[in-house]
Amino acid sequence: MDRANSVGILTGAGISAESGVPTFRGGGGTAIWKGMRFDQISSAEMVRRDLPAVWEWFDYRRGVLQECEPNPAHRAIANWQDRFESLTLVTQNIDGLHRGAGSRDVIEVHGNIHRSRCVSCSKMFQMDRACVPHDPDTCVCGSPVRPDVVLFGEMLPEGAYEKGAEAAASCDVFFTIGTSALVYPAAMLPEIAKRSGAFLVEVNPEETPLTSSCDLSLRGKAGELLPLL
Questions:
Q1: Catalytic residue at 74?
Q2: Which of 4, 58, 21 is nearest to 172 (CA)?
Q3: Which residue in 33, 120, 126, 171 has the most C-beta neighbors within 10 A?
Q4: Active-site pick, 98, 110, 114, 134
């Protein structure tokens, strides 16, 4: 890290779990919201069929997040911005905790639960974390708004993955933190970094499919390990 000019980072649910953020994913077909599975209530089809129900679910999640704050891992990453000539942070999380810790230009490949967008004109709205339920409910064009998150059956935001891949291909050190390395295409980023010659570091309490490819695997909580670096 002392010799690195460019650093890439991919974070997943594990880093936010240390702040008390639940994953909300019910396993084995578990009914998690009024009898509906996670992949049903959080789907593009559900937005078309019953948008109020989708908002009820996401407002519930936003309410839970009101009690969650950035942890030492989020703050350590934010501090690294001033340590390196270039730092690119890609997150699979939608909770906004990286931004809350002070990270700039975060690439949120799955969107942000505190943003909404118009279903017709795609105008974006930033919502106040303290404002639950959501506001606004309709766009200035009169159409309803929806959560600005990537739902089942939808593509990633245009250019988000590409920016992350470009950074991964040119960095000196790449960190994968709190991610299972199973959710694609984001899971390809550490692979791109490794193939391009970066020193690959994994921070995770458990082994993942990526572990054997890493130059260094640090076992433990990100909030305890990252500040030590």
A1: no
A2: 4
A3: 171
A4: 110
